[in-house]
Specification:
The protein is of the alpha/beta class. The protein has helices spanning 11-19, 21-29, 43-61, 67-77, 90-103, 157-163, 165-176, 199-202, 217-240, 246-250, 262-265, 272-279, and strands at 8-9, 32-34, 110-121, 127-138, 141-150, 182-191, 208-214, 280-282. Strand 4 (127-138) and strand 5 (141-150) form a beta hairpin. Bound molecules: iron/sulfur cluster.
């Protein structure tokens, strides 16, 4: 049983709880991670580090001064394994970074912050913890920018940006940090697809796109209330040490990709501890370290 009631929350913790309470217990409470998935950093995480380097160069010099340095950062943070994954390769990452720098050679805004960490009290006394990728000033309006990698990028992606509670939370956080006229979010999206490497298929794909979405005062207020409700429910589960297997009822065990704890849940309850011991390591979730 948890010895203390959790006070620090990030978006990943709340989102995991909403997907499945059992999954929350495995990842956030117990820190279980599948042994086979332990790569130093995901492809998306390494691309993210490379983009940080590009944006720092642009903030300082008004242009990208050393794109190769960003490529080297990507390669240094991502170990490719073409037997397991022949899509997420060094070649693809290099293409994405160099072509991103060409596509966005001229940024239309002033870059105020790159990687802004925050830890801010919520109205219920808990803390909301996270990191905003970028904060920019675009003709006097403040926007938060979040980099995303995805294997499917089309016009419908914009809908997910409009509906994203994660992004509403970032706008809330930016306002709390003093950017009172933060009006919304821009998702800076990069496509992860082997097809971009071939000129024959590249024309059918959209390798890069940006989607903006405003947030109103009342939407932000509503987000804050919903956070409080989710955290109350987490506290109740902690007090009772009860973690229902929501995914089995909602079908979310295989949503997007298979849940990393499916191997445990597929077994009978009396042998699950053996699967946990043989197939999982413990790496405690740290909301201050945005790696997943
Ligand atoms: S496999 Fe399904 S029930 Fe089990 S933790 Fe994952 S989402 Fe929950």
């Amino acid at each position: 049983m948890s010895s203390t009631i959790k006070k620090d929350f990030d978006f990943t913790a709340m989102n995991t709880f909403r997907i499945c309470r059992q999954r929350y217990d495995y990842r956030i409470n117990r820190g279980l991670v599948p042994k086979r998935d332990e790569l130093p950093l995901t492809f998306g995480g390494a691309i993210h580090k490379a983009l940080d380097e590009l944006w720092k160069q642009y903030r300082e010099h008004g242009k990208y001064t050393d794109v190769q340095k960003a490529v080297d950062i990507f390669k240094g943070n991502y170990t490719e394994d073409t037997k397991r994954d022949d899509k997420r390769t060094h070649r693809l990452g290099e293409w994405m970074i160099t072509n991103y720098a060409m596509t966005y050679a001229h940024q239309p805004f002033k870059i105020l912050k790159v990687e802004q960490a925050f830890e801010i009290p919520l109205p219920n006394g808990n803390n909301f913890i996270g990191r905003i990728d970028k904060i920019v000033d675009w003709d006097g309006a403040i926007w938060v920018i979040d980099h995303k990698t995805t294997s499917e990028l089309g016009p419908s992606y914009g809908r997910s940006v409009e509906l994203s509670g994660q992004f509403t939370g970032y706008v809330w956080a930016a306002r709390q940090l003093g950017y009172k006229n933060c009006v919304g979010v821009i998702a800076d999206v990069l496509l992860v697809a082997k097809g971009v490497l071939e000129s024959s298929s590249r024309a059918r794909l959209t390798p890069f796109a940006r989607f903006d979405a405003y947030r109103t005062d009342s939407q932000i207020e509503e987000w804050s209330r919903n956070c409080g409700l989710a955290q109350d429910e987490i506290s109740k589960c902690e007090s009772a040490n009860t973690w229902p297997m929501d995914g089995l009822l909602s079908g979310l065990c295989t949503y997007y990709s298979e849940c990393p704890y499916a191997r445990i849940c597929l077994e009978s309850p009396e042998v699950r501890h053996k699967i946990i011991k043989s197939d999982y390591n413990v790496s405690h979730w740290d909301p201050r370290d945005k790696q997943e």
